[in-house]
């Protein structure tokens, strides 16, 4: 039991810090740059993204192991996983519109972009490729969601401070965001090699 818990903890830490999808694999940057302008939208997207990520990891694992492997149709995994993601995003879109309409309108197009985000598709593909168990798939989905949330919140806090800074005109906006992302990614390389899976 202890070694299984340790492996799950390592999987979460590895997915969130060491192999962070934004800062070490450079995936999901469209949503990352679009939503990280304000802290409120970054936190809302972080919660939504992590929830969709975990549900997606679990549903995709169940479909892959109990439907696709027995029917020997694993070559269709990308198409099936995209369908699962699209259904989940549509459901979260509808729920958020009813529960938190203010946040829904602030997130705007980026909520729909979750379905085309590379991270949300990469997680079930990595789960299937690594042959993770159901609990390991959930842990990897949680770690990936937490890593994306950490990236968004760090970036949103820096970009809000930059609104008050005297930034040279050519660097205002997105160019400065790219510079900051590069510096944060450089800092995240300090985590590399901590856990070998």
Can you walk me through this structure?
Helix 4 crosses helix 5. Helices cover about 75% and strands about 0% of the residues. It has one domain (about 25-190). It has nine helices and no strands. With about 200 residues, the chain is an all-alpha fold.
Question: What descriptive keywords fit this protein?
Answer:
mainly alpha; 9 helices; single chain; 197 residues
Secondary structure layout:
Elements: H1 2-18, H2 29-35, H3 39-71, H4 77-99, H5 101-107, H6 109-112, H7 118-130, H8 134-162, H9 174-188
Total domains? 1
- The unreliable regions are none
How many whole angstroms does the radius of gyration measure?
Answer: 18 Å
Give the number of helices. Answer: 9
Rounded average pLDDT: 86
* Alpha-beta content class: mainly alpha
Q: How far do the termini sit from each other?
A: 18 Å
Largest sheet: none
The percent range for strand residues is under 5%
User: Which H/E pattern describes the elements?
Assistant: HHHHHHHHH
Q: Please give the share of residues in helix.
A: over 70%
Q: Count the beta strands.
A: 0
Shape: globular
């Amino acid at each position: 039991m202890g070694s299984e818990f340790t492996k799950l903890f390592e999987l979460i830490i590895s997915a969130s810090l060491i192999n962070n999808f934004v800062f070490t694999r450079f995936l999901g940057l469209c949503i990352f740059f679009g939503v990280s302008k304000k802290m409120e939208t970054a936190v809302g997207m972080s919660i939504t993204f992590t929830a969709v990520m975990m549900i997606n990891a679990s549903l995709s694992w169940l479909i892959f192991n109990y439907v696709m492997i027995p029917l020997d149709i694993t070559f269709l995994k990308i198409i099936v996983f995209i369908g699962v993601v699209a259904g989940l995003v549509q459901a979260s879109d509808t729920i958020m519109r009813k529960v938190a309409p203010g946040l829904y309108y602030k997130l705007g197009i980026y909520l729909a972009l979750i379905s085309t985000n590379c991270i949300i598709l990469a997680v079930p593909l990595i789960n299937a490729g690594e042959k993770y168990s159901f609990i390991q798939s959930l842990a990897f989905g949680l770690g990936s969601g937490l890593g994306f949330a950490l990236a968004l919140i760090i970036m949103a806090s820096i970009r809000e401070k930059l609104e008050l800074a005297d930034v040279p005109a050519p660097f205002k906006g997105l160019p400065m965001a790219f510079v900051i992302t590069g510096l944060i990614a450089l800092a995240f390389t300090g985590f590399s090699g901590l856990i070998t899976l």
